Here is the input.
Amino acid sequence: MTAPDPTALAFVHRFEAATAAARPPLLLLHGTGGDESDLLPLGRTVAPGAALLSPRGAVLENGMPRFFRRLAEGVFDEDDVRRRAADLAAFVGEARAAYGLPAPVALGFSNGANIAAAVLLLHPGVLAGAALLRPMRPLSDLPVPDLADLPVLMLSGALDPIVPEANARGLAEGLRAAGARVAHTVLPAGHGLSEADVTATRDWLGDRAAA
Ligand code: MLT
Here is the structure.
């Protein structure tokens, strides 16, 4: 069977091949207004040598790429969340076939963390784990799939003006109810990423590579 042509994949994306075979590939998911190049430096820093697969969100909000539509800040179009999560899950499957990859660990920031959480909950089996930086719950009713022992890192900001603390806690509880092994840390930070995010993500991914 011939592998699918990477240029025919449904998402505009960048791919960097692995140079360290022991590391799982990272699926990099940018925040609102980012693109497929945004998180490559972070991915290289937190998982040196890992394959990096970095799609661009297909939704435009005033010209800014996102992974799903929102009605207002923190108010999501939940039908669109479901539809776009299915699109992203399909892309991951096609990209794995095209590039010969095992299931990736998602590394998502903000809107990218939220679509990663939606893929975890709606399409179990697509991701081997996820590092969610400043996530919030993507759906008001969280499904309870079987995520037995799936590793999930959540990094929230104590001073985040966009994500209420109870919202992030609700996502952590929902993922735990599905069986995921969730490590949730609240950092002394706002919505933007800090050096502590880089260190915590690198350490968490290092444990995954060693496992
Ligand atoms: C979202 O819309 O996913 C969150 O509000 C975070 C953001 O991207 O601004």
Q: What stands out?
A: DSSP finds five helices and eleven strands in the chain. The longest strand covers residues 151-157. The chain has a mean pLDDT of 96.
